[in-house]
Amino acid sequence: MSWRDFFEGDHSIYVNARHRLLHDELIAKAVARHIPGEHARVLDYGCGEASSAAHVAQRCAKLYLFDTSRLVRFKLEQRFADAPGVVVLDEAGFEALAPASLDMIVVVSVLQYVGEAEFERWLENFHDKLAPGGRLVLGDVVPKDLSPLEDARALLEFGWRGGFLGAALAGLVRTFFSSYRTLRNEFGLTTYDEKEMLGLLRDHRFAPERAAENIGHNQKRMTFVATRPA
């Protein structure tokens, strides 16, 4: 099994429904703050089930949702069937987007499951799809020195603030015996330090900076905003 197989299957990385709801609301609100304006065309790449995507869609002219999982795309198509400002894309749909047709691309909590070579191919595609002056937002990037214990601490703090601390504790126990932990031990997570990520983005013709606040509940992780120069 690979990371792609894991996310293609019926899985849950959330400890309960409240965790999913609060997580998706947190991400949607943070992403919305990066949208350059109400006329923006935005792509959420590797969006997952995006249950709070309507919050993002209200703040831009067009929201494209892309995920490699067929099951996820089916759920998205059902949820947003009557939302004219939201378009669900498969891989062919993403490739068919015209060059310079997007004002923002956001990728949140995805890069840890993707090898660096594949990520660099993504950067070339993203640069092509973004209009001059468009921005690429990379959220929840895992730094090299972040331990699993810190991730666990951040989840418990989020659970305490969100009212699901007991479920968070139980979820950590389940994760210890789950296929997620097996995959993490076998394949690891792709991690970057700040200097390395900034250098990669510059190499692919972006003007990058690290954001002051991470998109996600763990502020030990990083968010980068990279602009395609005009």
Structure description:
- With 230 residues, the chain is an alpha/beta fold.
- It has helices spanning 3-8, 17-32, 53-57, 70-79, 91-96, 116-129, 148-162, 165-176, 179-187, 194-203, and strands spanning 41-45, 62-66, 86-89, 102-108, 130-141, 207-210, 222-227.
- A seven-stranded mixed sheet has the order 3-2-1-4-5-7-6, with helices on both faces.
- Helix 7 packs antiparallel against helix 8 (165-176).
- The N and C termini lie far apart (42 Å).
Helix and strand run: HHEHEHEHEHEHHHHEE
Strand order of the largest sheet: 3-2-1-4-5-7-6
How much helical structure, as a percent, in the residues?
40-55%
What percent strand? 15-25%
User: How confident is the prediction overall: mean pLDDT?
Assistant: 88
Number of helices: 10
Name the shape in a single word.
globular
Radius of gyration: 17 Å
Low-confidence stretches: none
Question: What summary fits the major beta sheet?
Answer: 7 strands, mixed
Based on secondary structure, the structural category is: alpha/beta
How many beta-strand runs?
7
User: What is the distance, rounded to the nearest whole angstrom, between the alpha carbons of the first and last residues?
Assistant: 42 Å
Keywords:
single chain, 230 residues, alpha/beta, 7-stranded mixed sheet, 45% helix, globular
Q: Outline of this structure?
A:
The protein has 230 residues and is an alpha/beta fold. The chain has helices spanning 3-8, 17-32, 53-57, 70-79, 91-96, 116-129, 148-162, 165-176, 179-187, 194-203; strands at residues 41-45, 62-66, 86-89, 102-108, 130-141, 207-210, 222-227.
